[in-house]
Amino acid sequence: MNIKIHIIAWMGLMASLLSLSCSINGGRPDDIEIVDLRINHFQQTGFGLRPQLVYQIQESGEIGGDAWKFHYDEIEGFNYEPGYVYDLRASKLIDANPPQDASAIKYILLKVRSKQKVAEGENFDIKLKFGGENFVTRDGVKNFLLDRYEIDCDILCTDLDDYLENNPEVTGTFVHQPDRVLKLMSLR
Q: What is the distance between the alpha carbons of residues 67 and 125, in angstroms, rounded to a whole number?
């Protein structure tokens, strides 16, 4: 009799854990809506599970304003190319109980409404070091932004090394160049 009680209790515990793990891994999204998104022409550095490049987005009523939100995950079906501002139509899925290491929001591309190249020589700022993290990597003599974009530092290469070595926060001002190259214009 005592063994039956232990077996029943053990089976109950396992069933509870199994149902909990299914809800943790997600399932059906709790809310789905169709939204318009604007994606900025450059990615910014940020921290998710690790240091990474993030999309800067505006959603629906925010489009055209000065404020941009960081979006840490990929947009399913979207092929991002730096140097262009995109207007998208997407499904926005919201999970009320996302896994701890994932966003509650997922976007799925429905349509690219426009893709506008930014003006030649348009400056933009990217944080190269902050929060104790250096986002600049090196492969031989070339510098990269998290191994994704080559940094053409030209006459500022020595300054870049000095700034990264001696300052807790460093921001670079850049312009786009062909082939995923960012031309460093100034440092602060």
A: 14
Q: Which two tokens stand for residue 77?
A: 């079906």
Instruction: Dump the DSSP string for 1-69.
Output: -HHHHHHHHHHHHHHHHHHHHHHHT--S-SEEEEEEEEE-SS-EEEESSSEEEEEEEEEGGGTTSS--E
Q: What is the pLDDT of residues 172-185, one digit of tens each?
A: 999 999 999 999 99
The residues facing 71 across adjacent strands are 55
- Counting other chains too, the contacts that 129-132 makes at CB distance below 8 Å and 24 or more residues apart are 129/163, 129/164, 129/167, 129/168, 129/169, 129/170, 130/45, 130/168, 130/169, 130/170, 131/47, 132/168
Which candidate, 100, 101, 96, 92, places its Cα nearest to that of 57? Answer: 92
Q: What is the pTM of this model?
A: 0.80
